[in-house]
Design brief:
5-stranded mixed beta sheet
Length: 361
């Protein structure tokens, strides 16, 4: 994934300077400051393609930086859509950690909650040594001694597998250290666990499979011990008036969340500790009436999965960030799709404050 594609909001401030005045930006200031040099690397000489690829890998290997970049990306892009172009969603859902980003971008939590979430993520051992680094949550579950830091042991990896979900589920049964963590489409899943055993599963299936660029632990019973910490981290005070708010879906139940603080925290923790079935979620939202999907995340990967899962059904997906496409072009193309499907919106931000020309005499 090119670095430019990950930071979907890279040009948003120049394209839509009015977002500088949004309260949301003040909440984003601290996390964006921490990831500034990763997304805007400084160098006295031009960075080569290999240099940028190395930064990509460094970013994707850091769950905290990935989380904060996702918060920034989805928050800014959602603000552009809702505050600048006056687009109001009826439903929303997130993928994995994207459920927390969804709650923040949809402004369900009280103001300043975004800073609280970031502070808790930084202070918690979850993404330092429990689910990343030494991965002591896995060591506990597998009956291995804990270590202070990653000692270079090839303990855990995630693999994208191009095979039917049911075949993969059957193939991992003999392996107690391999888990089916994500079903992205009917024929694309993610397995995780002991790298050697994961490769044995892929070989037995005789299918295409490759190691994912991230190796932190998510969506399996090996991290069930962290449920309480994740729930506490995602339990935040809510805004006082959420009547009429868009429905927010979670893979905890594959239904709209009850917008109550503790229940939201529990739902997000349950989502993170259990396998994701994205086809089930997408089809549930579709059955509840969704036909137009707007992706505010980076790279349009979820948009591709949505279209695959809804193949043959009438729908439209508009992605705000596509690899290899300029941010401005992506936004205008997405708006054109929405206009053509008669979505109510305001296009005046595209024209600025230019006065109408005087009529010719």
């Amino acid at each position: 994934m090119p670095l430019a594609a990950i930071w979907a909001g890279a040009r948003s401030f120049r394209l839509f300077p009015e977002i500088f005045n949004l309260p949301l930006l003040e909440q984003l200031r601290e996390p964006l400051g921490r990831i500034d040099r990763m997304f805007y690397p400084r160098s006295l000489t031009g960075l080569s393609k290999r240099d940028l690829e190395a930064l990509d890998l460094q970013l994707m290997a850091d769950p905290i930086m990935m989380f904060e970049s996702e918060i920034g990306c989805s928050g800014i892009t959602t603000a552009v859509l809702e505050d600048c172009f006056k687009i109001q969603p009826h439903m929303a859902f997130g993928y994995s950690l994207g459920e927390t980003s969804m709650m923040l971008a949809q402004r369900v939590f009280e103001d300043k909650s975004m800073g609280q979430v970031s502070a808790q993520v930084l202070q918690s051992p979850l993404f330092h040594e429990r689910l990343a680094g030494a991965k002591n949550a896995v060591r506990d579950y597998w009956g291995m001694p804990q270590v202070a830091e990653d000692n270079g042991q090839d303990l855990w990896s995630n693999f994208v597998v191009v095979a039917a979900a049911e075949k993969v589920r059957a193939a991992i049964v003999p392996f107690d250290r391999v888990y089916l963590t994500q079903i992205n489409t009917a024929n694309e899943v993610v397995i995780a666990g002991d790298p050697g055993l994961c490769q044995q599963v892929i070989d037995a299936l005789g299918c295409q499979g490759f190691r994912a660029p991230f190796n932190y632990v998510m969506h399996c019973q090996a991290m069930a011990s962290e449920h309480a910490e994740l729930a506490q981290m995602n339990t935040m005070p809510l805004k006082s008036n959420l009547a009429g708010h868009a429905k927010l879906y979670s893979t905890a139940t594959y239904e709209p969340m009850d917008l109550e603080s503790q229940r939201i925290g529990e739902a997000i923790a349950t989502n993170l500790c259990n396998p994701i079935d994205l086809p089930r979620l997408v089809n549930q939202v579709y059955n509840d009436g969704a036909r137009i999907f707007v992706e505010v995340g980076a790279g349009s990967t979820c948009g591709r999965w949505i279209s695959t899962n809804l193949a043959g059904k009438p729908h439209m997906v508009a992605s705000l960030n596509r690899r290899g496409t300029d941010d401005q072009v992506s936004v205008v193309q997405a708006l054109a799709k929405l206009v053509s499907h008669r979505v109510p919106l305001d296009l005046m931000p595209l024209y600025g404050d230019v006065d109408a020309p005087e009529p010719k005499r």
